[in-house]
Design brief:
The complex is a heterodimer of chains A (116) and B (113).
Chain A (H helix, E strand, L loop, with lengths): L4 E3 L2 E4 L5 E6 L6 E7 L5 E8 L14 E5 L5 E5 L8 E8 L4 H4 L2 E2 L3 E5 L1
Parallel strand pairs in A: 2-10
Antiparallel strand pairs in A: 1-3, 3-7, 4-5, 4-8, 6-7, 8-9, 8-10
Chain B lengths: L3 E2 L4 E5 L4 E7 L6 E7 L6 E7 L4 E4 L2 E6 L4 E6 L8 E8 L8 E2 L3 E6 L1
Parallel strand pairs in B: 2-11
Antiparallel strand pairs in B: 1-3, 3-8, 4-5, 4-9, 6-7, 7-8, 9-10, 9-11
C-alpha cells in the first residue's frame, strides 16, 4: 500500500491477556520503528528494526514486550500479560534506510490499546 | 528526565496571524530537529526539519529557527489557517541514535477563524 498500515485500529483487552499488534510498512522502507503515546505524553520509542541488523530494543519497557519483523517487512509487537499501564496508542513508522532523522518517518494511524 | 520539552500544552491564535511553537532541549549531542503535526485519530506527519549546522529552515508557510546556544527551537507558521489546528510535536535525534527520535509532549494549536 501507499502508507504504513496498522491493525487493529482499536483493541480492548482484559488485564493479563496477551495482545498482538501488526504493522505493514511502506514497501521498500528498510527501517521500522515502534513508538507508543500514553495519555498526555509524548511519543515514547520502543524498538527499531533496520534491514537484517539486530533490532534496537532499548526502549522496550519490560520483558513482557517483544517484537519481530519477518522477511524485512511486516512487524508484530506482542505484549504479554497486559497491565492497565500498557493502555496507549501504539504507533508504527517506517523510513528509507534509517534516515528518519533527516527526512522524517511515515507513521501509521496507530492501534489504540485499552486494558480493562 | 525529559530531553525535549514543549512547555506550552496549548496555543490559540487568530486566522491570518503568526503561530509560534516553542521547544527546548537539554542534550547538546542532538544534531537534527524535526516537527511533526498530528490530527486526532491519525498518525503524526512530518512537517519540517533542521540540521544543527543551520539556524533557519523555511518551507512555505513554515519556518523553523534553531538557537543552539540557548538549546531552543521554534516553529513559525505564517499566516495561520484553521486547517493548521492540530497537535505539534518537536523531536530530536543524534548521530548515534540510528534515526530514533526523542519527542516532546506536544503543543495543541487552535487557529480560530
Amino acid at each position: 500500500g501507499a502508507g504504513v498500515s496498522q491493525s487493529p485500529s482499536n483493541k480492548v483487552t482484559e488485564k493479563g491477556k496477551d495482545v498482538e499488534l501488526r504493522c505493514d510498512p511502506i514497501s521498500g522502507h528498510t527501517a521500522l520503528y515502534w513508538y507508543r503515546q500514553s495519555l498526555g505524553q509524548g511519543l515514547e520509542f520502543l524498538i527499531y528494526f533496520q534491514g537484517n541488523s539486530a533490532p534496537d530494543k532499548s526502549g522496550l519497557p519490560s520483558d513482557r514486550f517483544s517484537a519481530e519483523r519477518t522477511g524485512g517487512s511486516v512487524s508484530t509487537l506482542t505484549i504479554q500479560r497486559t497491565q492497565q499501564e500498557d493502555s496507549a496508542v501504539y504507533l508504527c513508522a517506517s523510513s528509507p534506510r534509517g534516515l528518519g532523522h533527516l527526512y522524517g518517518y511515515t507513521f501509521g494511524s496507530g492501534t489504540r490499546l485499552t486494558v480493562v | 528526565d525529559q530531553q525535549v520539552k514543549q512547555n506550552s500544552p496549548s496555543l490559540s491564535v487568530q486566522e491570518g496571524r503568526i503561530s509560534i511553537l516553542n521547544c527546548d532541549y537539554t542534550n547538546s549531542m542532538f544534531d537534527y530537529f524535526l516537527w511533526y503535526k498530528k490530527y486526532p485519530a491519525e498518525g503524526p506527519t512530518f512537517l519540517i526539519s533542521i540540521s544543527s549546522i543551520k539556524d533557519k529552515n523555511e518551507d512555505g508557510r513554515f519556518t523553523v529557527f534553531l538557537n543552539k546556544s540557548a538549546k531552543h527551537l521554534s516553529l513559525h507558521i505564517v499566516p495561520s489557517q484553521p486547517g493548521d489546528s492540530a497537535v505539534y510535536f518537536c523531536a530530536a535525534s543524534y548521530g548515534g541514535s540510528q534515526g530514533n527520535l526523542i519527542f516532546g509532549k506536544g503543543t495543541k494549536l487552535s487557529v480560530k477563524p
